[in-house]
Amino acid sequence: MSGTPVRPPSQRTAAFLAAYDALLARWPVPVEAVTVRTAHGTTRINACGPRDGRPLVLLHGGGATSTTWFANAAAWAGAGHRVLAVDLIGDPGRSVHDGAPLGGVPGLLGWLDAVLDALGATEADLCGHSYGAWIALEYALHAPARVGRLALLDPTQCFAGFRPGYLLHALPLFLPRRTPARARRYLDWESGGSGHLDPDWRELYALGYADFPASRVVTGPRPAPARLRTLVPPVLTLLAEHSHTHDARRVAAAARSALPTATVAVVPDTAHHNLPMTGAARVNEQVAAFLADSART
């Protein structure tokens, strides 16, 4: 069996990879490019921080690539963590899905099992944004003994659904003849204007959306409340105040109801995609404090 066929990079894909490397070069700490082989293909991890630090696995949102953590990784590495920013398999980035298809949620979680095995991370803390937060939550439910603590940044499909208006605006992303311009319009609408997004990341997202070989996105239903109650790791949920993806306060209420012991907060003056960027000071501080507090318990 094989995954998505590997094709020669187009001119636009080459531009995407150049933009990826340029954004990675902006990380204010030395970054080690790590690749591990799994049954599904080759996974790229951008690692920084002390090698003997506690592993902190970062899972980006759909199409965002692991470079999206440029405003966060240094702060968490500086707090003593071995930061492991993963490019999701089958998504735009430097991971290559040239192995077996994921075949659904079990395959996706099995891929992450294999990545952690290859990294020697028998236990790690997880931090995910958007779709990456959903993966992180599903993984914590799948392998609770491997997750020390769990940070969810504006998570989608974890505690509540999407706004209907958001789905209407996102629909063009899934129509034929994908173009960078279509992706830019979507990002600008969701973030309240292009000035609210890092321009280098905005362009990287647009190029990757339009022309990067990718697999079908693996999704699943929101975890049922009874299933959420079985969650073992401590949880931090940070929500973007002006997210168009969902109603932040409704999601906050749902998260508190489902996980009464979780720490839940709304980060002011942030939108869904720019939460790790515009909200970096608040996000970095709260995630670092959450990880430190959990380490002492």
Automatic annotation (TrEMBL):
Gene Ontology CC: membrane
A molecular-function term among this protein's GO annotations: hydrolase activity
UniProtKB keywords: Hydrolase
Organism encoding this protein: Streptomyces sp. Y1
Protein name: Alpha/beta fold hydrolase
Pfam family, one: Abhydrolase_6
Superkingdom of origin organism: Bacteria
Keyword Hydrolase among UniProt keywords: yes
Lineage summary: Bacteria, Bacillati, Actinomycetota, Actinomycetes, Kitasatosporales
Domain (AB hydrolase-1): residue spans on this chain: 56-284
